[in-house]
Amino acid sequence: MLEKKIVISKNIYERLINDKAFFNMTDISDNEFLVKIILNTYDYINSDDYYKLISDMKENPIYSSNKLVKGMNIDDENFKKDFTEIVSEVIENEMSLESKKRTDTKTLFIRETKSTVNELLKLLNKAGAPVASKFFVKLILRYMYFPQYIRERILFNRIYEDIKLFSKGNKTCNISRGNNTYYAKIYDLLPGKEEFYNYVIVYGRNIKYSENVIMSFKLSSIRYIFGTKENIEITKEIKEEIESRISIPEFTGYESKEFTVYFDKYGENLLNIFYKDRPVILSKDTLKRKYVLFSSESQLVSYLKSFGWHALPVDKNIQDKLKDFYMKGLYLFDKDLLSLDDEKIKNELEKNKDNLVNLKDSLL
User: Fold this and answer.
1) Cβ neighbours for 101, distance < 8 A, ≥ 6 positions apart
2) Rounded CA separation 182/68 (Å)
3) pLDDT for 24-59, tens place per residue?
4) CA distance to 140, 194, 201, 242, 243, per residue, from 187 (Å)
């Protein structure tokens, strides 16, 4: 079985591990994660999607300073080949710099996994790569140069390709997410407002229910997509409704609106750190630390739970929901009930509704 040692900087390694957490892939080993990056990145840079992307990358200052890039014509048949060679040159320079930072490196071993037996070997033969370790590092660095939403598409390429297939064929499909399955017609797949994640815009329903609604799923949250005999139609009215919401893809499936939130200095720092699922910032008053956020109510409540007293939403309903959340936590700490399982905690809270109400009143 193939096994190769690679050396990368700790900075690159930490960014890779951050991606693993961002895309909720902590259930697989680091080796499985790296093998997936290597195989899928190679497929991506040899796909039509890559050709569409590189016209935008041409404007990236990393590459645009190159004299050859400045004179390139995207309509030229050799554009993709020439640009790819320049990207390789940039990455070769990066690798050269990496090799000079031996005091700040991470050594890893790339091994075949059960699900990819001989795939790495086939890749090396197909690419004609004489030095496997160098080739693997080059692909990993190339992966890191892509924007985050492209990296998500690379990691979840099977789901991404299925989405394109069902969308192009205008077919109803089954979408599996966690413990839920949906009948849905895929309308579009778009990067979020801040280009961190991709969102699949669909019209459909949970198989437990009968009413179709507009929904927005994060690409990395989808486990499987497969065919179904169900038939869902997107009418002209539904299409118009989707289009009216789609400017912010992550909130297409929710009734979103503007919320004003005040932060203290620490809360403002947290706002700049907590990128994951952060509402869209429409405006801010730096002096007052007053922010106008665009979000659904449930999304904002979920996001602000990590801020404690460092964030103050103006909306009374949001305040009440956050008070309920903190109130339950206070009660569980006070009664030392955190060692109980979820069902027992739920029963304990139900039995002590009156105590919880009194506790909530004391917080107001």
Assistant:
1) 9
2) 49
3) 898 899 999 999 999 999 999 888 887 777 666 556
4) 32, 20, 5, 9, 10
Counts of helices then strands in the chain (DSSP H, E): 16, 11
Please answer whether residues 178 and 223 qualify as being in contact, where contact means their C-beta atoms are separated by less than 8 angstroms. Answer: yes
User: CA–CA separation, 116 vs 110, rounded Å?
Assistant: 12
**Model-level pTM?**
0.69
Mean pLDDT of all residues in the chain?
79
State the Cα–Cα distance between residues 161 and 43, nearest whole angstrom. Answer: 12
Where is 347: in which H helix or E strand?
Answer: helix 342-351
**Residues in the chain with pLDDT < 70?**
1, 54-103, 250-256, 328-364
Q: Cα–Cα distance between 140 and 155 in angstroms, integer?
A: 12
Yes or no: say if 214 and 201 are a contact pair by the CB < 8 Å rule: yes
CB 311 within 8 A of CB 329: no
The set of residues, in sequence order, having a beta carbon less than 8 Å from that of 236 and lying 6+ positions away, is: none
Strand 3-9 relative to strand 105-111, pairing: antiparallel
d(CA 2, CA 124): 11
DSSP state letter for 117: T
Torsion of CA 72, 75, 80, 81, to 10 degrees: -70
Q: Distances in Å between the alpha carbon of 144 and those of 15, 59, 148, 174, 302?
A: 8, 17, 8, 32, 29
What letters, b where the CB count within 10 A reaches 16 and e where it falls short, cover 206-232? Answer: beeeeebebbbbbbbbbeebeebeeeb
Q: Cα separation of 6 and 135, whole Å?
A: 10
In angstroms, the CA 349 to CA 334 distance is: 12
Indicate the residue type of 336: D
